[in-house]
């Protein structure tokens, strides 16, 4: 009788562990699938400016590999009091910046923030903007997610 109880307890423990392992594998697989469909930032950099400057611009590419469009509704950085998404437009032969409150990245496509076009306007630097290194940023998505990334100071290849 004791042996039967021990056998049943061991079998129950084995089944519970096997079920937990399968659940963990499913959760990990779901996380990997979710990561594969999550937007990703690449090629991020911040324009180098003179030491006294308190504003600059940031550039990046954001790729949306998912099946649905993704909307960016904001950005931030602990280095700046204000980070806005801007685009450069030409009106009557004059280039002007216009703030965008929302930018959409279509499914399977990449949105580029680059000189002369879309960019992050980095204002109210909380300290001197570094001449090199990395600056942390966060993009806020309309669905509640956020993307953390770092941008190198200085144009790539310079």
N-C termini distance: 79 Å
What is the assigned CATH homologous superfamily of the largest domain? Answer: PCu(A)C copper chaperone
Top CATH class of the largest domain: Mainly Beta
Number of helices: 1
Q: Can you tell me the number of structural domains?
A: 2
What oligomeric state do these chains adopt? single chain
Stretches with pLDDT under 50, minimum 5 residues:
1-33
Describe this entry's structure for a reader.
- With 158 residues, the chain is an alpha+beta fold.
- 23% of the residues lie in helices and 45% in strands.
- The longest helix has 36 residues, at 2-37.
- The radius of gyration is 24 Å and the shape is globular.
- The relative contact order is 0.21.
- The model is unreliable at 1-33 (pLDDT under 50).
What's this, in brief?
By secondary structure, the chain is α+β, with helices and mostly antiparallel strands.
């Amino acid at each position: 009788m004791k042996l039967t109880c021990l056998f049943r307890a061991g079998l129950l423990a084995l089944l519970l562990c096997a079920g937990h392992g399968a659940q963990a594998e499913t959760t990990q697989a779901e996380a990997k699938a979710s990561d594969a469909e999550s937007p990703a930032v690449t090629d991020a950099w911040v324009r180098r400016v003179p030491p006294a400057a308190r504003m600059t611009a940031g550039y990046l590419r954001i790729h949306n590999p998912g099946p649905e469009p993704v909307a960016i509704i904001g950005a931030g950085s602990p280095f700046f009091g204000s980070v806005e998404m801007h685009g450069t437009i030409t009106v009557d032969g004059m280039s002007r910046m216009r703030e965008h409150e929302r930018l959409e990245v279509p499914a399977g496509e990449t949105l580029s923030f680059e000189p002369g076009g879309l960019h992050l306007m980095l204002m109210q630097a909380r300290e001197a903007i570094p001449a090199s290194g990395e600056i942390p940023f966060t993009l806020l998505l309309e669905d509640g997610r956020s993307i953390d990334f770092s941008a190198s100071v200085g144009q790539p290849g310079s």
